[in-house]
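Progress narrative, Year 2. Work on Nicotinamidase from Rhizobium azibense advanced from sequence curation to structure prediction during this period.
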Amino acid sequence: MLRAANVWGRLMRALLLVDIQNGFCPGGNLPVPEGDQVVPVANKLIDSGMYDLVVASQDWHPPGHGSFASSHPGKKPFEMGVLSGKPQMMWPDHCVKNTLDAELHPALKSEEIDLIQQKGENPLVDSYSAFRDNDQDASTGLSDFLLDQGVTELDVCGLATDYCVKFSALDALEMMPGIKVRFVEDASRGITPEGVAAAIEDMRARGIEIIDSQKALAG
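Result:
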């Protein structure tokens, strides 16, 4: 149920759950190590009552998306390739729309989510961020939605820290100037330890506060 927009200029907190989907959890087509362990932490955040608004992003690729290794003869998953003339990591087929792999994790309290923002539908460009594609040409509209609701603080978490979570947090900071952005570390998991460490340092260097769920729940 969508909560009321901020019309009185008060602090308004939102929670962004990035790509907590079957495809990125154990048993999925592109599993993040321990990806399912973010679900109970995310549910605690949802249930806390600390957030005026809860939104989620959902990878929602068409079959044969250009980021899939299977769309490039001779390429294997996790090799670098080219998509629309630009370097592109080649991924296993994952989160194809209208498949079980693309659904939000069944234990996630999806009924409490106010908006699910789908992304990655253009077969010619990948979309890590919940806010825009990787070329930064096409916006999903999520930033406009959050600004229209009067959001002043945004906590970001989910899968995977070193890709979609990082880029979503950085885009939130850039596309919504003046909004405080925080990364909830224990409600997130990444693909590699090195990638996670680099992503956290990148976010911190750009002014994103790194917190855990206990601090998030404390306000």
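The chain has one domain: 13-61+95-218. The chain has five helices and eight strands.
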